[in-house]
Each structure stands twice: as structure tokens, then as C-alpha cells.
Amino acid sequence: MSKSVDIKKLEISFNNEKLVNISFTIKSSTALIGQSGSGKSLTLKSILNLLPSNLDLIFDVKSDFKLDSKNIGFIPQNPFTSLSPMTKIKKQFFCDENKKIKLLNLVGLEEFVLERFPSELSGGQLQRVVIAIALSNDIKLLLLDEPTTALDETSKKLILDLINDLSKKLDILILFVTHDINSIKNICNEIVIIKNGNIIESGNTLEILQNPQEKYTQELINSTFEKKEFRK
């Protein structure tokens, strides 16, 4: 069983200016929370080995498995741009036919989806396809980058419920990156709050939601739930 990914030191710099300087552990299901520009995306790109070459990186990590494309799945923000629009769904998987069907069923889709082009599916269906594809390599770590941003409220809830279900069923670690604390409160056991490239608070999700120690964390919580009330 994959226990954790211990990021002992992650330092990203540009022209000797530190953009990110953090350390944290991905355990079970962990959320990385922060506003735009806080360093969330740079952290994800570092783990995926996709940082631009003009940035300097120090990455000291201890993991039970190799952090490479075979062991890491990635769910991007926008499912509409993450698939080839002119290619049928069945050609976008990296596994045999039987496993494709099994994966689609796992995310709540039927076999007919394999014969569809992305433009023939809804946003929620597409994100389910992207999740299924990410799982096709028997991954050990799933990275989610604001996976519900491009979806309507109904599809968003369905995808969050699916992620929560998968996190309990599968023997994989989850790092859920978002600015929306409300979206992870029932999914992630641990939470890491990042601001200006630094971690300002971390720990058990429920404890931090109920008793945040930092003003920034409280502002994130207030902003999230005020928007939720406004949508009602």
C-alpha cells in the first residue's frame, strides 16, 4: 500500500527570487489550498516534472514509489481542452479494450462512450473520461488541479462525489489542488494552506475548518462559503 509522499523540500526560484519554498507530506487524501498566484500550480508542475526551464528547482522528496508518468495520474482544470477533439474516446486510453470498459464503469459511464468524440459529451462526462484515463496506468498518486472549475454546479457535485468515492475504493494517494475549501471538506483528510509560495497552516481538515489559526485561512473559508450562500 502506498503510504505517503514526503516532500522534504520544494524550492522554486527565478533570478534568485524564491517563488515557492515549502515542505509537506501527501498522506491518504491531501488538499493544497490557496488563492491564484499562491504557488499551487508551480507545486503541481514540480511533481509532474513540467516546470519551465527558466526556473530553478530544488526538489528533495522521499516516496515509496518512483514519481513518474507511470505512477502519477493528472486531472486538469478543463476537460474540454485536455482531450484530442478529433479523436474518439477509445483511442485516448492507454490500455486494452476490457480495461477501458472497466474504467468507464468505475467512473459511472457506459461502453458506448468509447465510440464518441469529445464534442459529443457533456462537461461532466468528459471529466469522468479524463479521470478514467488517468487511472488506466494503475497509478499510485492522483493529482487534481481545480477539477471542477469548468463545470456547472450539478456536474461539479457529481464529480466531487466520484472523487470522494474513488479515494475510498482505490489504493492511491490524492493531492487535490484548489482555492475552494468547500469542495474538499468531505474528500481530503489533510489540508495544506499556501500563500505567496509558503505554507502558513496545515493539519487535519476538519480541525482547521472549525478552528483556523491564520487570518488568511479564515478569509479563504469565509470567501468560499459566502459564494456558496450567494449561489443559493
Brief write-up:
By secondary structure, the protein is of the alpha/beta class. It is built from seven helices and nine strands.
Give structural notes.
The protein has 232 residues and is α/β, with parallel strands linked by helices. It has a domain at 4-71 and 139-231: Rossmann fold (3-Layer(aba) Sandwich). It has seven helices and nine strands. The protein has a six-stranded mixed sheet with strand order 5-6-7-3-8-9. Helix 4 links the parallel strand 6 and strand 7 (173-178). Helix 2 (97-106) packs across helix 3 (123-134) and helix 3 (123-134) runs parallel beside helix 4. The radius of gyration is 18 Å and the shape is globular. Mean pLDDT is 90; it is low at 227-232.
Notable features of this structure?
7 helices; Rossmann fold; six-stranded mixed beta sheet; 232 residues; three-stranded antiparallel beta sheet; disordered C terminus; 9 strands; alpha/beta
Strand order of the largest sheet: 5-6-7-3-8-9
* First-to-last CA distance: 41 Å
Beta-strand percent range: 25-35%
Largest sheet: 6 strands, mixed
Low-pLDDT regions = 227-232
Q: Estimate percent helicity.
A: 25-40%
The residue-averaged pLDDT reads 90
SS summary, helix count: 7
> Mind telling me the CATH superfamily name of one domain?
P-loop containing nucleotide triphosphate hydrolases
Tell me the name of the CATH class of one domain: Alpha Beta
CATH architecture of one domain: 3-Layer(aba) Sandwich
Shape call: globular
Count of extended strands: 9
User: What class would the helix/strand composition place it in?
Assistant: alpha/beta
Compressed to H and E, one letter per element, the order equals EEEHEEHHEHEHEEHH
